[in-house]
Amino acid sequence: MSRSADDRPSTGSSGRSPEASGLSRQVRRLCADGYRLYDSGEYRLALRSFYQAWLIIPKPQTQYPEAGWVLTAIGDGYFRLGQYEPGAESLQSALCCPTAEQSPFVQLRLGQCLWELGRHAEARKCLYHAYQCQAGSLFDNELPRYRQAIEDLLPHD
User: Fold this and answer.
1) Global confidence as pTM
2) What pLDDT tens digit does each residue of the chain (157 aa) get?
3) Neighbours of 16 (CB within 10 A)
């Protein structure tokens, strides 16, 4: 699935200090480089750009919305590489960042990583949450097994 504009950081930065706005611009630039690589299937190189973005976020990173963007991108990259454990770790960390806990995409990718790791009960919770938030549209370009994993939880007409 190609990263859509909805999955990428928003461009608004009103009400933020100049330092925070500068940080946001730097993170956006590195992530944009990573997304270009991701979209061309170069997931390892994309991860390198995303990790560069991670390294410029001040500690504690979880206080910055940018951290959620970057951790989501890292988790997604690991998912694409079939490295589900680091993918799940990154996505679970993203849930601790401002606004990321509201992201259906984070829930979807986390659920997929957990499913592939055999952690089915946890995966079903995440997948169902993602489904509820997006009325299932997130699943349109995903393997059918992820929707099938929650089929018994879905309303039937």
Assistant:
1) 0.85
2) 445 444 544 434 444 565 667 888 999 999 999 999 999 999 999 999 999 999 999 999 999 999 999 999 999 999 999 999 999 999 999 999 988 888 999 999 999 999 999 999 999 999 999 999 886 789 999 999 999 999 999 887 5
3) 13
